[in-house]
Amino acid sequence: MADNRCPMTLPTERTHLFDPPAEYKRLRETDPMTRLSFPDGTLGWLATRQEDVRAVLSDPRFSTYLARHSSPVRATPPEERGELPPGTFTSLDGPEHAHYRRMLTGLFTVRRMRQLTPRIEEITKGRLDAMEQAGENVDLVKEFAHPVAALVICELLGVSYDDREYLQEVSEVIMSAELPTTEIAVVAGGLYSYLLDVVRAKSAQPADDIISGLVTGDNGLTDEEVVGMAVLLLLAGYDATANMLGLGTLALLLNPDQLEPLRGDDQAAQDNLVEELLRYLTTVHLGTIRGAKEDLELGGKLVRKGEIVVGALAAANRDPRYYTDPDRLDVTRERPSHLAFGHGPHLCLGQQLARLVLRVGYRELFRRFPDLRLAVSPESVKTLDDRVMYGVYALPVSWSKQPVPAGAAGE
Ligand code: HEM
247: closest CA among 141, 338, 398? Predict the structure, then answer.
């Protein structure tokens, strides 16, 4: 069981826009539970096989709380390892985690998402109108992916859409994997006080949104806890959705043979397309982290109590034991089960919302602009390697104006 090889740091270098670092493939086949060196000098593990990653995320002997100050790419100095703000339930375990999570699950059900569909369609079409008016050459990330994601999350939480630029800026800083933790803490502090004002305003004058529901509900939550929960939803929901809209569109533009489901009305085929893009792109590219609560065995290795394990979602989602030809984007795969939304008790709370926004977003985009194309070379598209979520900074696209049908002029 002992492993004396020199430990590696998390592989992050990509050789292909959509493929995880090549090193993952080698590890998955030859050393699937490998020793990993963390930036704070501690030694942990990297799991790359889907079976092991599922185990890390679902075995109650693994804790998110123990891993709350760990990152495979950035060290948090001991003096900055303060307690978590109240309501930060994603870093809690067991009953404490469930206490907060169950107050939100009812707000993200498939049924509730069905009710939201017309509003999401309206938001999406509104942004496409704006894009069309802006010209025949735009940055799709700026004009479509970010505004759609921001509008949806602001609407859901009940936060003013006028503040979207501020929210976008803070989310970029907080989700950065490289900026110093002190800088992030200052920006996060600003976001907490901004949301505290929103929470107090909603207590005085509630509306039909998540923050109002939480502050007026009979749940014993303090304003500070509601703020903590709102911060999580905002950060988790906004960035992840925007990045999947941008990167997913790029993947479709570079694989035009995969666009067929978006041309028809077969919702099941469109659902498959979204699922396959989630699997293939796995935007939570740095993986998920957990700490071992006791000595345990995983993938044939002894993980000691307190050691941190990174579950490489991107490697697990390309595991040939689970998928035929895993490195191929194939939107006809039957609803591939994947780990892009995680697994176990912390499985993404917003997954149904994300699926809905992505299905409507890709469908309406390619309906409105059937000849949408990339306006630059794929090599010049800059990727978000330095962020917790993978994606593209900008996506310059163009299209041809459709001729106005005869007789429609002047309508
Ligand atoms: C394509 C979009 C999205 C992706 C790829 C994604 C991915 C993930 C992943 C991988 C996790 C698990 C993290 C872990 O186990 O450590 C997660 C958790 C979470 N996600 Fe998402 N997410 C997306 C959209 C959303 C949206 C739209 C929301 C809400 C509005 C959301 C809210 C959350 C929350 C609150 C958690 C923590 C759940 C818990 O700890 O119980 N996500 N997400």
Answer: 141
